[in-house]
Amino acid sequence: MKWLTISIPTAVSVAVVSVVLSGPTGGRLALSSEAPSAQDRQAGSGAAANQSLRYAGDVEHGRYLVEQVAMCVECHSPRDSQGRIIDEQRFLGAPIPVRAPSWSSDWAAAAPRNRGLPGYDDEQAMRLLTEGAIKRDGTQLRPPMPRFRMSHQDAADVIAYLRSLE
Length: 166
Ligand code: HEC
What we know:
Radius of gyration: 15 Å
Order of helices and strands: HHHHHHEEHH
Shape: globular
Largest sheet: 2 strands, antiparallel
Bound molecules: heme C
Helix content: 40-55%
Low-confidence stretches: 1-52
Mean pLDDT: 78
């Protein structure tokens, strides 16, 4: 697949998508704490609001998820000409240097800022991370944003960490 080899950051991003979507990482996210019940999923955003109040976010575990597991930092941070993430600009948004693969008709050209999760209240951020990348307006975010289905605790931790960076 030609688009996999365009550049190193590209390969990393694409690898991240497949790992997060189908690999052991997804399983680990779901396993590391209580998974949402079918009832929570059916109840939708109302339940998510209660969940976000029920789970206090752990900033340190959120940092680990964001930097080492879900790899949000890899796509959402600008890079220098060598492809290294620019430290002061982490999570401020970046272009996606990967062309859409032929099977995708819908592909985002950029990952917007997610430092502080601007524009998202806790309920919306919880829904985004637990229900498969639902944008704040209720629509589906485009690939390559992974369709995370985190546990409510992991999502609360991620939210706490990203909010702590503001
Ligand atoms: C493989 C690349 C990639 C990874 C990894 C990734 N994102 Fe994204 N993200 C994107 C892209 C691309 C978009 C824009 C999608 C669109 O425009 O439809 C996006 C959109 C978002 C948005 C919506 C912003 C808005 O203005 O509505 C949020 C919030 C977000 N991501 C948070 C995260 C978090 C938190 C993580 C880690 C848990 C993460 N992303 C991991 C690529 C990625």
